[in-house]
TrEMBL record:
Organism per entry: marine sediment metagenome
Residues covered by the ABM domain: 5-63
Cross-referenced InterPro entries: ABM_dom, Dimeric_a/b-barrel
Name of the protein in its database record: ABM domain-containing protein
Record-linked SUPFAM superfamilies: Dimeric alpha+beta barrel
Length: 104
């Protein structure tokens, strides 16, 4: 499954300010059972808007990690709050099937 949120960098800060905190928190979160990686992307044409995608084996593993919050992760997230506002987008299942056009 995918856990997706949008990050809006506050005036006076840069995406790199948030990215440092994101990497540190992600390294800790990725130690949890079921964690399968994370991605952070800038929006084209708007370098102050980012999207973060965390990949998990399943929602149960994600919820278990959230149910036992890490003090270290909470401290990093609290510190990053001065850089940005975060908007949760949602949790998405992996597709059961994918249709792709034939190669030309």
């Amino acid at each position: 499954m995918k856990y997706i949120f949008e990050v809006h960098i506050k005036e006076g800060f840069h995406a790199e300010d948030y990215a440092d905190a994101w990497v540190r928190a992600s390294q800790l979160i990725q130690q949890a059972p079921g964690a399968k990686g994370t991605e952070l992307h800038r929006k084209i044409g708007d370098p102050r808007t980012l999207i973060a995608i965390a990949h998990w084996e399943n929602k149960t593993d994600r919820d278990a990690m959230e149910g036992k919050p890490s003090e270290a992760v909470a401290k990093i997230i609290k510190g990053a709050a001065r850089f940005c506002d975060i908007r949760f987008i949602g949790e998405f299942d992996e597709p059961e099937w994918v249709v792709m056009p034939p190669a030309s």
